[in-house]
Specification:
single chain; globular
């Protein structure tokens, strides 16, 4: 193909969802010239809860981006989508484009798996099929170059911090885990002890799912340490934290944060949560990360170790291009 690949990245716009498709698209770009167009969709409230099999494009909310070319425009070479909301659209793109578009779905769709040209699914989801590529974690946007670029804005604040610099990534309540105020206090005390004993500093960020009480108690108990606790205002220092960190502590409820941290080559310490049901896929992911030398359960210390950084987004991108080359898509 002599012209740049055209790639549409399709999701419901939530950052944790969109970044999976966008991360895969961005991993394609260094391998071949490509243009990326981000598409964000949502279904009208009346149709949102319908099964995927019953949804049609006319049911999309008017605020959605167009998921078909405008008159005179062409379909993309690559359609990369993530999330349940995109499934009804992804499943019909090959037909609607007349075979013009190669369709990639990230995550395990659990519906019409054979309708997509390639499914890039986390190994811990245990998806299977001839068109399924299993990777450790999900595709993401964390690369050394991006971290360095994003870190520049925080250089003056984070670079002088005493080492080891410890990035702490806190999740929150989900179907599988909870972060109660009492447990958050216990975690904060363990983290404070470890950072203080190492003579280091703290870089702490919370997720949108972190309960307010947990956030408050952790902030209060960790505020005396050298470092930065992001309160959600101003520029997000997440990438900068990963860049400047010597260690990364991440709660066990987030597969995305664990996989992103493991791509840095920094020691990843997994913080326990309150289990609401068997950990299942999270246990499988953490076992995978342990086997690859990236992660260990947090034991209250900050002993360093080394491993080969995970580069699963690039591995998936190479598989996409290989399958695209053999697909007959022009």
């Amino acid at each position: 193909m002599t012209r740049p690949l055209s790639i549409w990245v399709v999701s419901d716009g939530r950052a944790g969802i969109e970044n999976q498709a966008l991360g895969l698209a961005e991993a394609v770009q260094p391998l071949t010239p490509a243009t990326i167009t981000v598409k964000r969709i949502r279904w009208r409230t009346a149709f949102d809860k319908l099964p995927s099999a019953l949804k049609a494009p006319w049911m999309l909310d008017p605020s959605s981006d167009a998921t078909a070319p405008a008159p005179g425009e062409g379909w993309p070479d690559l359609w990369i989508a993530t999330g349940r909301a995109t499934l009804p659209l992804s499943a019909t793109v090959r037909r609607r484009s007349g075979g013009r578009t190669f369709v990639v779905q990230t995550q395990d769709p659990r519906w019409k798996t054979g309708a997509y040209d390639l499914v890039v699914a986390p190994a811990h989801d245990e998806a299977a099929g001839p068109n399924v590529l299993s990777i450790t974690g999900s595709p993401h946007r964390v690369t050394a170059a991006r971290l360095a670029q994003e870190a520049a804005a925080f250089e003056a604040v984070l670079s002088p911090l005493p080492r080891p610099r410890v990035a702490v990534l806190i999740g929150g309540r989900s179907m599988a885990f909870d972060l109660t105020e009492a447990h958050a206090a216990e975690l904060a005390d363990r983290i404070a002890d470890a950072v203080a004993q190492a003579g280091g500093s703290l870089m702490l960020t919370f997720s949108r799912r972190t309960p307010a009480a947990a956030k408050q108690v952790m902030t209060a108990r960790l505020a005396a340490l050298p470092g930065l606790i992001w309160d959600g205002t101003g520029s997000n220092p997440y990438f900068a934290f990963l860049h400047f960190a010597d260690h990364v502590l991440v709660t066990e409820d987030s597969a995305n944060m664990a996989a992103e941290a493991a791509s840095t080559g920094k020691p990843v310490h997994v913080l326990p949560m309150i289990a609401l049901k068997p950990a299942g896929k999270f246990s499988r992911l953490h076992a995978d990360l342990r086997e690859r030398g990236a992660a260990r359960p947090f034991d209250g210390t900050l002993e360093p170790w080394t491993y080969a950084p995970l580069n699963e987004s690039e591995r998936a991108a190479r598989a996409v291009l290989e399958r695209l080359a053999g697909s007959g898509v022009d």
